[in-house]
Amino acid sequence: MNLREVITLEIGVKINNYLKSNGISQSFLSSKIGMNPSKLNLALNGKRKLNLSEYESICWALGVGVEMFLEPKAPVEQT
User: Fold this and answer.
1) Among the residues of 1-79, which ranges form H helices?
2) What Å distances lie between residue 28 and 7, 47, 64, CA to CA?
3) Distance between terminal CA atoms of the chain?
4) b/e burial code for range 23-61 (CB count within 10 A of at least 16 → b)
5) Are 12 and 55 in contact (CB under 8 A)?
6) Is 22 in contact with 33 (CB distance < 8 Å)?
């Protein structure tokens, strides 16, 4: 898989939690980004991965930076 295909399932769940805590409906978000509501629902419930362009569109629609739902990984120490 390439980078454009991989945004972990956890990201969708984090976005869904953000929507709930900010009173934003999935239907509003799906119409704003032009994504099929069923496809968005699967992603936001951890049953489908978002590709990079979908993730960027969601962040844009929510007015947040792309780093919002990502967790930095510690660098791997080489010996």
Assistant:
1) 9-21, 26-33, 37-44, 52-62
2) 22, 20, 16
3) 28
4) ebebeebbeebebeeeebbbbbeeebbbbeebbebbbeb
5) no
6) no
Q: What is the pLDDT of residues 3-18, one digit of tens each?
A: 444 457 789 999 999 9
Cα 47 to Cα 22: distance, rounded to the nearest angstrom: 22
3-state secondary structure of 36: coil
pTM for this predicted structure: 0.80
User: What would the pLDDT profile of 34-78 be if each residue is shown by its tens digit?
Assistant: 999 999 999 999 889 898 899 999 999 999 999 999 876 666 666
**Two tokens at 11?**
């990201």
Specify the pLDDT at position 44. 94
